[in-house]
Amino acid sequence: MPHIDLKNDSAVVIIGSGAGGGTLAHELTRRGIKVVLLEAGKRQSLETFSQVPGEAFQQLTWLDPRTQSGSWGVARDFPTLPAWHCKTVGGTTVHWTASTPRLQSWELRPKTTYGSIAGTSLIDWPIPYEELEAYYEIAERRLGVTRRNGVPGLPASNNFKVMYAGAKKLGYQQVHTGHLAINSRAFDGRGYCIQQGFCVQGCKMGAKWSTLYTEIPRAEATGNLDLRIECTATRIEHGADASANAVIYRDSRGQEQRQKARLICVAGNAIETARLLLLSNSSKFPHGLANSSGQVGRNYCHHITGFVWGFFAKPVFSWRGATIAGIVEDEAINRPSRGFVGGYRMELVTLDLPTFPLVGLPYGWGRDFASIIDNYRNMSGMFINGEDLPRADNCITLSATVKDAFGLPVAHVHVDDHANDQAMRKHAQGQMTKMFEAIDARRIVVGPVPPATHNMCTARMSADPRDGVTNARGQTHHIKNLFISDGSALSTPGAANPTLTIVALALRQAEFISQQMKAHNI
Amino acid sequence: MDQTISPSRRDLLKNGTGVLTGLVIAGSPLALIARGSVWAVDLTALTSSEGAALMAMARTICPHDNLDDAAYALVVQAVDRDSSKDPRNHRLIKEGVASLGASFATSSENDRVARLKKVESSEFFQQTRLKTIQVLYASSLAYAYFGYEGEAFSKGGYLLRGFNDLRWLPEVPPEDSGPMPIG
Questions:
Q1: What is the number of domains present in chain B?
Q2: Which ipTM score applies to this complex?
Q3: Could you list the residue range(s) of the whole structural domain that residue B92 is in?
């Protein structure tokens, strides 16, 4: 691995090694560009992934403190954990369940499609679908997505048989084992899915795509990557000309370091990306870097989510098999007669013990609570993934009270549900309940909204610089050599799990960055 | 079996402040794996009576009648371990247990529920509820009791061990499913 000197100002510095940062690092290094990749977490491997759920959670999760407020259920039910994402090499691609639907064409034009809706800060994307489509195709080939390009789907599990039967009784047509970045057959030097059901703990087969064992080792093999683990970026500095020129970070020993840079890409997951920009305030930029619009941290989206559990007379053994290998896509449409705009997907899910009673059930204790868990073997699960509407006041700010281990204010997350969000969630819970009822569930339990696993839009792309933080390439509107390279840059969330879109945008951004560097525009 | 359960009582009281003991229920999952007919858990911060009250509390929060006491004793052991590490936490638990009133461990379930409802909003209750769920449902005793098979990588996954063995619903047609990856 090359060592790029701290004073070397010719390299690209990428902050975060997940879907966005890890993909970008590979794409730039294979084009001959030197990259310093800062990752706050440790490096695990297929061998070191813990298969004890509680241990795996500790091993992979971003557990630094955060505070939160707002009317959404997470602030009440999970006050210390607004979001569940990773702090490890590979980022959240280590624990993701690998569902990779595309955004649909109309979802990139939500303001045009839905019209103006009071209490939202909706915008259209600055990219037409036709332009994104080409990168979706590359991303799907790269990730080996099932049911695309001739790659077979995963075989139906017990849990999916339940979903399928219920969905068909309701007349749904688009029901299958899903588009997944999980190998249904050996591919790209990685093995096939053996239906462990431990996707969230890190796939010990490597059947699930993760930058940890695909993009990052390939970037390392180019000889152009300097990966620094347990290095937490705390500030981005700029020069007199207002271009970004260095990243301040704490290394694995807690020592402060300053890495000079030609170009900086932030990919720390939407909460930390916004926090880092806000922490990087200066006399020239008193409200934080790239924040002349005041939009950094705003418009935070997290998808409409929630569990519905059905309990049957006979066993399901829902834990046997790939966690999310099943989907109903018929409701991923915009039909305002349902009482809301935007669409949602219904995705197969289950949770291990003890995570099921910790995260999957509404707060409770006593006989009724325990009686649900008594029927764990006979349980089937579904999850909503729907489009939430951006609100200016749903935002990431710096906590006024709580500081991290380095004495810096932690992120404060504020989320109020919009009426549209509530109507969509209610509709989805109703449809899932009907699906379970149609196949004679004995009991149906509607679970809580869990900590957000999809964190998006806090530094969004916008055609008008006043509406967002970056242009259509993820380049910040006012600082030419500062880029956003993760889910923060999504203009809106649509109803698609975000990783495929993040990868597609990173592929597209890498082309742009390398062209701009070659042309000496940056 | 969980390392934390030792059927041997030999060294238990060496450094301990209390001890919880019980009999292994014949025919229970524990009986299959225990080396003897008695289990014991030693306590280093809490007294035996505090331990008994906490065990009754765990059983009231998550009542599964046929689940061995030993599974609930693991919760008490975890609470005791936390107490021995942190004086503030130790005080919280001691005062919390005292707030449950006398003879909590031996009172009826209805009475225990009523007493817990009175303290439900306290930090003591909230913390103990969370600990109970985290520890109780993570134990191999609970896995066996609920039929949860857990980690599967070491056994080759569930691909050939029942991931698709459900027969009480129709099979999914091939176009919406996918082929087995092997022979």
A1: 1
A2: 0.94
A3: 18-155
